[in-house]
Write a structure and sequence with these properties.
The complex is a heterotrimer of chains A (88), B (239) and C (198).
Chain A: E1 5-6, H1 11-15, E2 26-29, E3 35-37, E4 42-44, E5 50-53, E6 60-66, E7 71-74, E8 78-82
Antiparallel strand pairs in A: 1-4, 2-3, 2-8, 4-5, 5-6, 6-7
Chain B: E1 13-24, E2 27-33, E3 45-51, E4 57-63, E5 71-76, H1 84-90, E6 96-103, E7 117-122, H2 126-138, E8 145-151, H3 160-169, E9 173-179, H4 180-183, H5 188-194, E10 203-208, H6 210-222, E11 230-234
Parallel strand pairs in B: 7-8, 7-10, 8-9, 10-11
Antiparallel strand pairs in B: 1-2, 1-6, 2-5, 3-4, 3-6
Chain C: E1 13-14, E2 23-24, E3 45-49, E4 55-59, H1 60-65, E5 69-76, E6 81-92, H2 94-97, E7 106-111, E8 116-120, E9 130-135, E10 138-139, E11 149-151, E12 164-170
Classes of the chains: A mainly beta (88), B alpha/beta (239), C mainly beta (198).
């Protein structure tokens, strides 16, 4: 059977690339404009990479592929990521 | 070859199993010694990587069950699982595995959060929520907590003995079980009776199989809870 | 320097006869990058579009009336499982290209659901690639790409697009869904061409 999980499952793969936890960031979908936490994206993990889709329109918002010595991050489906940071 | 951990970079660490504890006939808790463990928030998880003698490797995510700094994972053995039968039945104290984390900063509860908390668990989805209950106790927090836990039968319920004790000893913690084999699935009426009124603006955490989580989250929103306050974590599979 | 767990074997086995880095499986794992499209056979269509935009379309009735082959092939997934001796029925891709006027060297396979993957046209000709509609004696289930999937077993299995709905012929190579995210444009398992640059 196939089942999706959610964006919480992206935490390890994204934390390898980013210095902050991106699953708590707010992401806006290019397809429909809906915004929500990365953790709430629908994630297809039984695949050659992690494919995160918008829970509203199911367009691909973010993809991560991990090779042995490289990673690829595709954010074409993302308008912007809003990342909370400590005040300067 | 020694790996030097660059501060802030997520790296695989060698973890040693120090204890195993049966929770139910099909679930075990592993206590791990992880040198350099930076501590974690309740609700965070780790990635575990296993490598077979022929080089085949498999990676899975597990929620941390314990309050920081103790590292405990509860593994539910899945009938068709690949990693869980090893972790849930074969691994023994002294064995090593690779682990990275903690990761995840969204499905987390901090003892400084002031809102009352509603935890809704489907099956082994209780694991990260148990970390919240244990963290609350360890911090001496008085934040009111309510847990609604759906499990197939009492024999399938994780942490039942500890929860019974904590309901008695931890002031402000209420626990309600739904035995789905006899009582059926979680209902709006159960969440209405054993949750908090939406007016209290509780922080709601829902964890379980995808179908369970989506049904429970929809019920909470239908009851008037703000979708913004309903955090969910799905681990796939069927209820 | 991974830590080896002597008691852990997973569900796969190393096998010296497999392509490098592959492990043998006896089940048939289902990989998906999104929701499974449910396409009734009587609504299924397959369109070949040339570089000039000329399009030819076949229906399920057209497909199943064409001369088919039964083939037994090994398949190799880039996620490291291989499955030996799988049996399929399909129509050779070349049968759909016979009357097509093209100077293209590449093709993009398109799927219901939006998936794409690129292949050299030469790799779709002769007895190398099939438009498959039966697996192991039965209709192909939606989880495995039914009603119709591409079958190109000499390349990693992500090239064998599930839920096939068309081929677009191209003068220049252009990366598909996984190829834009790091995977190899060709994907020969025997040369272990998993990622770009391999």
């Amino acid at each position: 059977m196939t089942a999706s999980v959610d964006g919480n499952a992206l935490a390890g793969a994204l934390r390898e690339i980013f210095a902050v936890d991106v699953t708590a960031a707010v992401v806006r979908c290019c397809g429909c404009g809906q915004a929500g936490a990365v953790a709430q994206l629908t994630v297809w993990a039984h695949a050659p990479g992690l494919v995160a889709r918008c829970p509203g329109c199911s367009d691909v918002v973010l993809r991560v592929v991990r090779g042995p010595d490289r990673a690829w991050l595709d954010l074409r489906g993302t308008v912007a990521l809003e990342v909370a940071l400590p005040a300067e | 070859m020694a790996r030097t951990a660059i501060p802030g970079r997520l790296t695989w660490r060698a973890a040693t199993v120090t204890a195993v504890r049966d929770e139910t006939p099909t679930a075990r808790t592993l206590t791990l010694d992880v040198p350099g463990w930076p501590g974690h928030l309740a609700g965070q998880h780790v990635d575990v990587r296993l490598t077979a003698p022929d080089g085949y490797s498999a990676q899975r995510s597990y929620s941390l069950a314990s309050a920081s700094p103790t590292v405990e994972l509860t593994v539910q053995v899945l009938a068709d699982g690949e990693v869980s039968p090893y972790l849930g039945t074969a691994v023994k104290p002294g064995d090593q595995l690779e682990l990275r984390g903690p990761v995840g900063g969204w499905f987390v509860w901090r003892p400084t959060d002031p809102a009352p908390v509603l935890l809704v668990a489907g099956g082994s989805g209780i694991v990260p929520l148990m970390a919240m209950i244990r963290t609350r106790a360890a911090a001496g927090s008085r934040t009111p907590f309510r847990l609604v836990h759906s499990a197939r039968t009492p024999a399938d319920a994780l942490y039942a003995t500890e929860l019974a004790r904590r309901t008695r000893d931890d002031a402000g913690l209420d626990v309600h079980h739904v035995w789905s084999r006899t009582a059926g699935r979680l209902t709006v009426a159960t969440l209405n009776t054993h949750g908090w009124p939406p007016d209290f603006a509780p922080a709601c955490y829902v964890c379980g199989p995808t179908g369970f989580v989506e049904a429970a989250a929809d019920m909470l929103v239908a009851l008037g809870h703000s979708p913004r306050l309903v955090k969910t974590e799905r681990f796939g599979g069927t209820p | 320097m991974a830590i080896v767990s002597p008691g852990f074997h997973g569900r796969r086995r190393a096998d010296p006869d497999l392509p490098p880095g592959q492990y043998l499986t006896t089940d048939f794992p289902v990989l998906s990058a999104g929701p499974t499209p449910r396409v009734p056979a009587d609504r299924w269509q397959f369109t070949v579009t040339t570089e000039t935009g000329a399009a030819t379309t076949w229906t399920w009735a057209d497909l199943t009336a064409m001369p088919a082959r039964d083939v037994t092939v090994d398949i190799h997934c880039v996620t490291k499982w291989s499955k030996l001796g799988t049996t399929w029925r399909g129509v050779p891709v070349s049968a759909f290209l016979e009357d097509v006027d093209t100077a293209a060297d590449y093709a993009m396979a398109h799927s219901y659901g939006g998936y794409t993957t690129n292949l050299p046209l030469d790799d779709l000709l002769d007895d190398q690639a099939w438009v498959a509609y039966r697996y192991d004696g039965d209709d192909i289930t939606p989880e495995h790409g039914g009603p119709v999937r591409l079958l190109v077993p000499h390349l990693y299995f992500w090239k064998s697009a599930k839920w096939l709905r068309g081929l677009t012929l191209m003068l220049e190579d252009s990366p598909g869904f996984w190829e834009t995210a790091g995977y190899h444009d060709y994907g020969d398992p025997w040369r272990e061409q998993r990622y770009q640059g391999d």
